[in-house]
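# nightly structure sweep
# worker-07 picked up a monomer target from the shared queue
# config: single-sequence mode, recycle default, output format = structure tokens
# input follows
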Amino acid sequence: MAISQENSAVSSPAKGVRDRLMDSAEQLFAERGFDGTSIRDLAAAAGCNIASVNYYFGGKEKLYVEIWRRHLHLLRDTRIASIEKVLSESAGKPVLEDLLRSFAYSFIGPLVDESGGPRLIKLMAREMVNPHLPPSMFGDDVIKPTLSAVQQALAKACPDLPESKVPLVVFSLIGQLLHTIRVKMMQHSMDDEALAMFEPARVIDHIVAFSAAGIRAYAGGEA
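# output follows
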């Protein structure tokens, strides 16, 4: 799923420098943190001069934001696409388990994918401890549009669920998925065999079965 590039008018060589800066900066920020990475480090890793950081991004802070925006837009688009796919394949009447499983995999998948997931998890861990992003960025770029899409789909998958309960059900579901990601983050930072049983696919199967049963009971007035 492609992410839109704001500077589409920039020539091909210039795009190469911009992309190299973003890729190198992402690696450095993940390994060293924002404060531990200098503009000189960024330029050296990208094979360009120091002025390029200001020219393309207006400074280290804005470069950091652009790296996150690239990831957040991909996370948002992947999650919403998973919901739309289930709705399309079911003609707007999704099976609850299918919806939950598709959303769960799209939610966790990019963060556990070995090609880039570990680096993104490191970035997340560092941002949680030492935040540098605008406070509203996660909410505006990811949370609000994702919540809107999953709430609408859940209402179709479980029409007996009272509308007033839908946001709390989604809140509970996402809480389980976020905790799964936190466990994955712990696995990257410590060697603990006790955490090995929380393999993502196994956890997702549990979350789907557990949540579907709870949602149906909730909709039937049993909770």
